[in-house]
Amino acid sequence: MTTAREIMHAGAAWITRGVMLDRAAELMSEMNVGALPIADENERLCGILTDRDIVVECVAKGKDPRRTTAGELAHGTPRWIDADADVSDVMQEMESHQIRRLPVIENKRLVGMISEADLAHHLSEAQIAEWVDKIYSRAAT
């Protein structure tokens, strides 16, 4: 059984709710990532900020990214997976919620992230083809 821990990118960086969006964008650029988990004061996951969120929810709406915090864009309960979950559960979670990045949690703390690239590096071509078909065909409808 392959677990989330085995395919995740370990040591994922996170930001706090008070980080301004311009700084979050700089961090994404420096780390070459498209998303950063948002943690609360207890280092628990409370949201995920994507580069698209910054553009669509801040810049396109005329807000100033130097004065808008990550927490202002953290809505709802973020999806996540336990570090010991089977890869089939990882794929199901991502498929059913149409997400392309999934935080990995252990003992209520962020320990890594799983992205499409992580899946591509660790799964068979058949598994990836099936996952891509489910993610992208449903996203188009």
UniProtKB/TrEMBL annotation:
Taxonomy, superkingdom: Bacteria
SUPFAM superfamilies named among the record's database cross-references: CBS-domain pair
Record InterPro entries: CBS_dom, CBS_dom_sf, Diverse_CBS-Domain
Cited CDD domains: CBS_pair_HRP1_like (cd04622)
Organism: Streptomyces humicola
Protein name: CBS domain-containing protein
Pfam (any one): CBS
Residue intervals of the CBS domain: 8-65, 73-130
SMART domains membership: CBS (SM00116)
Key words, A-Z: CBS domain
